[in-house]
Design brief:
Blueprint: H1 2-10, H2 12-35, H3 40-67, H4 77-83, H5 90-113, H6 119-132
Helix pairs in contact: 1-3, 2-5, 3-5
């Protein structure tokens, strides 16, 4: 157990996931306050998803410790050199996916809160939200 906790506390990817989840949750709460739309089922679903991400990372960290699997072979050498990766385990790989997912959610919440978002990203985010969700309406634009 000490090995797992040590691994979790030293892993930058896991720290970034936790930071992204925290920031996304904060922005989501601020957006709910701004729009006066507190939906408990939506909030519970989001909370369950975030807890599942954390549990998945914890479980995959244990798998990494046991297997020592290395995903570096799937990355181009330029990325390995640029990011100075020495090891990319299963937990780090999924952490990167979760960071990407949370980053999109953060941008969405920033946009819906009215925070400054670069115009090209704002337009793409609006079109994406308009196409796949009912979170924005045509008159909001």
């Amino acid at each position: 157990m000490n090995i797992t906790i040590s691994f979790l506390s030293k892993n930058i990817f896991i720290k970034l996931v936790m930071l992204a989840i925290t920031f996304d949750t904060l922005l989501g709460c601020l957006r709910a306050i701004k729009t006066h739309k507190f939906n408990s089922s939506f909030g519970i679903n989001g909370g369950i998803r975030k807890i599942a991400m954390i549990a998945c990372i914890f479980f995959l960290s244990i798998v990494d410790i046991l297997t020592q699997f290395n995903f570096l072979f799937i990355l181009p050498q330029e990325y390995i050199n640029f990011f100075r990766f020495q090891h990319l385990g299963i937990s780090e790989f999924f952490s990167m996916l979760f960071i990407f997912y949370e980053s999109i959610s953060i941008l969405k919440n920033m946009y819906l809160c009215g925070l400054p978002v670069p115009k090209n990203i704002q337009n793409k985010m609006y079109n994406l939200l308009y196409t796949i969700t009912d979170e924005v309406k045509i008159e909001d634009r």
